Each structure stands twice: as C-alpha cells, then as structure tokens.
Amino acid sequence: MEILLVEDNEKLRPALQEGLEATKAVRVLFACGKGEDALSFCLHQKPDAILMDVQLAGEMNGIETAVAIRREFPRLPVVFYSIQDDDAYYRAFRRAGILSHYAYVRKSNYLLPEMIIPLLRDAINGRSFIDPDIETRVQEVRHKDEQDPLALLEPNEKEVAQMLALGMSNEQIAARMGFRDKRTISRINGQIYTTWGLNKTTTDEKVARTRAALIVQSGQLICWDEDGTPRVMNSQGEWIPWSPAQKDNLT
After folding, report:
1. Is residue 251 in a domain?
2. Which of 13, 82, 95, 180 is the most exposed place for a label (fewest CB within 10 A)?
3. Are 135 and 156 found together in one domain?
4. Which residues of 27-50 are buried (b: 16+ CB within 10 A; e: fewer)?
C-alpha cells in the first residue's frame, strides 16, 4: 500500500512512518503536518489511502482536509485518528457526510502499525469502521444538536435566524444588524439552511425560510421527508412525525 501520512506532531510523524514501513506492507509516499500540504500532494500524486490525524497544524482539520481531497478524488480511502474529545470534531465529521471507505479511531487505542494496517486495507476495499467509543460520542453530539439547533450556528447566524423567525424581511434584518447590503443576509440565510439541512430537501428559498422559522420557534431540529412530513428525534433516537402540539411530548 502506498499511503499519505498526515500528522502534525513533529516527533510522532517520523516514528509512525518508520514503524509502518518496517512492516513491509506500507510505503509512505509523503508525510506532512498540514491539510493544505496533503491536498496539494494528492493533486499531483494519488495515494492508495490516507492516514490522518484529525487535529492538524494548518487552517483545515483532518476531516475538512478529507472533504477537500474527496472533491477531487471521491471515496479516496481515509483512516482518521484522534486523541481529541471535542464536540466540534464529531460535529464536523457528521456534517462532512463521509459514509464509506474510511475508519475513525482513537489514537490511544489503535495507533500501532499492526492495528492500523488492517484498517487501511479495509478502507481501500470499501469497508468502513468507527471506534465504538467515538461512535458513542458522535451520537451524543448529534442528539445534543438536534435538541438545540441554534447551537449549530455562529453568533451572527443565530441572530439572523431569530429575526427570520419573527417574520422580518432581509431588508429589515440588515437594517437591524447594521448591514448596508441585504445580500449579506441572503448569504447568512444560505448558511443557516445548509447547517440545518434545509437546502437538501427544497430548492425553494421561501420554503426553506418557513422551515427555518419553524425550527427556531420549536427549539428542535426538524427534518422533512420527500413527501413533506416533518419529523423530530425522540428520546429513543427515533425520527417521529412532528406537529407543534407535540413540542413537549417526544418520549
């Protein structure tokens, strides 16, 4: 296997490369500490797989780097590892929509060549794996976000969403926030729709706006089926039909 190694720790990176290559099963084509360098390398030479830390030294974390690389090379196998236990990383992983050809494991549990190599082979063969400890945390963050959709937004996005839910126009929101150009609000609206998955279910801005207002007013993340049925997640993790009358009865 010819791999790209992305690890920001200057001491761990050469040690990891040496350990992997000592098995004779892996050849490290390139090793770096930044996602930007990883992307640049892949554009010139495609590896069989990527072994990548989630926390990196550059502007992009490992998950963002994988998304950028997969835009050019869909489903390029990636094995993520991390010692971090940060909601933001699990949230980024969920948002990335990475569903196949990957593994996501804890550094402390799996960072030995004899454990990494099978994960790399599985990813190359299209099989995915997620460390049960990480899966638990991903679901915890997912449940937290679905109970408080505003927690997913940046401060200015929250402010816009709350005014949108009051029925204010883009011009009125722009004036309230001190923006001269209402197009700024349109761009913020677009980010809100993306974050809440509203642009996946509708291309009509008016529908997306109405649904965003309902999410703010209900205080729950609502998803709409293709037939328009709204659903929310109950305490058992099940998506059930929603109506305003059952706001406080999701058990």
Report:
1. no
2. 180
3. no
4. ebbbbbbbbebbbebbeeeebbbb
Residue (of 131, 46, 47, 139) closest to 87 by Cα position: 139
- Name residue 215's amino acid: I
> 15 and 133, same structural domain?
yes
Taken in order 32, 36, 38, 44, the sign of the CA dihedral is negative
134 contacts 87 by C-beta, under 8 angstroms: no
Residue 178 lies in a domain: yes
Q: Do 213 and 95 lie in a common domain? A: no
The residue range of the domain holding 68 is: 2-143
Residue whose entry in the numeric block shows the structure tokens 């305490």:
235
pLDDT by 10s per residue, the chain, length 251: 999 999 999 999 999 999 999 999 999 999 999 999 999 999 999 999 999 999 999 899 999 999 999 999 999 999 999 988 888 888 888 778 788 999 999 988 888 999 999 999 999 999 999 999 898 888 888 777 767 888 888 888 999 999 999 999 999 999 999 988 888 999 999 989 988 888 776 668 889 999 999 999 988 889 888 888 998 877 776 788 988 875 544 44
Distance CA 111, CA 75 (A): 23
How many domains, the chain?
Answer: 2
- Is the distance from CB of 249 to CB of 220 less than 8 angstroms? no
CATH number at residue 44: 3.40.50.2300
Nearest 10 degrees: Cα torsion 194, 195, 196, 198: 0
Query: What distance in Å separates the CA atoms of residue 7 and residue 98, rounded to the nearest whole number?
Result: 20
